[in-house]
Design goal:
5-stranded antiparallel beta sheet, 3-stranded antiparallel beta sheet, elongated, cell projection
């Protein structure tokens, strides 16, 4: 019976939907996490009677045909790249992006990854790195005798050194933008990779040419809304249950048919 297969595709789709929602909820406290959303499309149709088909020699046509659908499929789980709220931390090397842009990160193999997570640290050489120890691009080294560090809205890294009354600039944080942010490939650790779908990165200076500005002593929070995720979870659960009931009903109908043939 066709209904068994159709309902099974619905159950698989909602199982994936619940998995996406559960990942969003699990990352509610992940710095700069961007929530995902499952998107679905209907599968191919069997056209038992095609709409518009001629029904008589006088030229009459069917105003509505008979189309039997074969279920649903998942076509994507795009990320919703909206701005998360900023939380003040007071830490010198915590930096949040307010607006467009991603920090550039050098991976251990020399490739470039991108992140919105600005929870930076210093390594043993005084270089600014991510929480996993990856260098940011371009590389910035803080002098060992620095007594104060300021990262302004334009991404300039300024330090105060003993015996000086003015700050010296030791580096410039750059940002990257993509024409299709949702096309970036997530690889974990709050990192993304460029893909053909995202387009090539456009590099620039914070607060100029459409780039966002930087906020020192702040971190961007996840853009997950608990109430929305819970309501989506309930809807997905009910949809799963209804598809399960369809399978149960189809099984009962097959059983009834089988009993008639005995």
């Amino acid at each position: 019976m066709r209904a068994l297969h159709t309902a099974a595709t619905g159950m698989m789709a909602q199982e994936l939907n619940v998995q996406v929602i559960s990942n969003n909820i699990a990352n509610m406290r992940t710095t700069a996490y961007k929530r995902q959303r499952a998107e679905f499309q209907d599968l191919l149709y069997e056209h038992v009677s095609r709409v518009g088909a001629q029904t008589s020699s006088q030229g009459n046509v069917l105003p509505a045909g008979i189309e039997l659908g074969s279920g649903v499929k998942t076509v994507g789980t795009p990320r919703i790249m909206t701005q998360g709220s900023l939380a003040q931390t007071g830490k010198d090397y915590d930096v949040a992006i307010r607006g467009e842009g991603f920090f550039k990160v050098t991976m251990p193999d020399g490739s470039t990854a991108y992140t919105r997570d600005g929870s930076f640290e210093l390594d043993a050489q005084g270089r600014i790195v991510t929480a996993n120890g990856n260098l940011i691009q371009p590389g910035i080294t803080i002098p060992q005798n620095a007594t104060g560090v300021t990262i302004n809205a334009q991404g300039q890294v300024l330090v105060t050194q003993p015996g000086q009354t003015t700050q010296n600039q030791v580096g410039q944080i750059e940002l990257s933008m993509f024409i299709n942010k949702a096309g970036l490939k997530g690889i974990g650790d709050n990192l993304y990779l460029e893909t053909p779908a995202s387009g090539a990165p456009q590099n620039g200076t914070p607060q100029l040419n459409g780039f966002g500005d930087l906020q020192q002593g702040n971190l961007e929070q996840a853009n997950v809304e608990a109430v929305s995720e819970i309501s989506d979870l309930i809807a997905a659960q009910r949809a799963y249950e209804m598809n399960a009931k369809v399978i149960s009903a189809a099984d009962q109908m097959l059983s009834a048919t089988s009993n008639l043939m005995r």
